[in-house]
Amino acid sequence: MKIVNIVGARPQFIKLAPVLKAIQRYNEEHEDLPIHEVLVHTGQHYDYEMSQVFFDELGLKSPNYHLGVGSGTHAEQTAEMLKRIEQVLMKEKPDVVMVYGDTNSTLAGALAAAKLHIPVAHVEAGLRSFNKRMPEEINRVLTDHISDFLFCPTQTAVNNLKQEGITKGVYLVGDVMYDAVLMYGELAGRKSNILKTLNLKPKTYALATVHRAENTDDPERLSTIFKAFKEIAENGLPVVVPLHPRTRNALFSLEPNPLSHKPAFLHLIDPVSYLDMLVLEKNAKVILTDSGGVQKEAFFFKVPCVTLREETEWVETVESGWNTLASCDLQRIVQGAIKIQLGAKSAWAYGNGKAAEKVVRVIIYEALQ
Known about the structure:
Blueprint: E1 2-7, H1 10-29, E2 36-41, H2 52-57, E3 65-66, H3 74-92, E4 96-100, H4 104-115, E5 120-123, H5 135-145, E6 149-152, H6 155-163, E7 170-172, H7 176-191, H8 194-197, E8 206-209, H9 213-216, H10 219-234, E9 239-242, H11 245-251, E10 266-269, H12 274-283, E11 286-289, H13 292-300, E12 305-307, H14 315-319, E13 323-325, H15 330-338, H16 355-367
Helix pairs in contact: 1-7, 1-16, 3-4, 4-5, 7-12, 10-15
């Protein structure tokens, strides 16, 4: 059988890695009935630090197709992806198209496949923030409603789909990002020199990331968030902020700029590789983020997290006590970072590290029916 994997953004490369490894293992054990895998990179993320470095250090094969779509408005980007993905699918004629997460690449891949009557497999299905102002929420809802295989990371995700009337083709498999942390955590510890490079010691700093449009595209929210980071640093806890290119552009165009007098303990750095990020996360005293993936990785490493949003699709991290929702409230962000309250509950919901193997087994089983 032939599978086309469609990715385009940094989080998707991480989710893809365990699935490609699982396909490789399957092919080694079933040489008589191999999976032919075709990899399509839309080019949604295209800077080296946001794209190619992940392929290099995770040992991923080079994409069979690099569509080079690049930036643009949501409509421009999604439309261009649709056009180019359709051309690939008409040429390759796959049995299944796999999409990941909740980006424009996810929705474009799912739509192109569905229009051509090719079964769609959505890895990380069923997540809901219930905030339709988020483009990610629109992408994930629409993708789920046109998918044939819905691979859910948690029971909450399964329940969300059931409430929307989706019960057919739903599989609870666990979280492929947890698979990735298990696969690459030890390698990160051996290869990454990021703590030495930044002159950091474990558990003596905060790690922060900001990239979602609701924060970067709202000057007041973005200014407040970085004022909070500044105050945390001034209170003696260094804050390390790998800056997404969109965030950097938005931040330095603010007037007045909240960092006109940047404290020495606030470190604004370029985006880091996946292995470096794992090491920074594992060794942080606290993490501040609007990223869903970083929230989970904080939970995996049992590092307290302050989420810079009003809601999260990863509700288990909040219910366990390891994640606090602070939105863009300056005092809630600062207090969450400085007066850390460790979670006391154990609420593990993310599988056993074999989610990718389950995904591949399900697709093969269905294909043989």
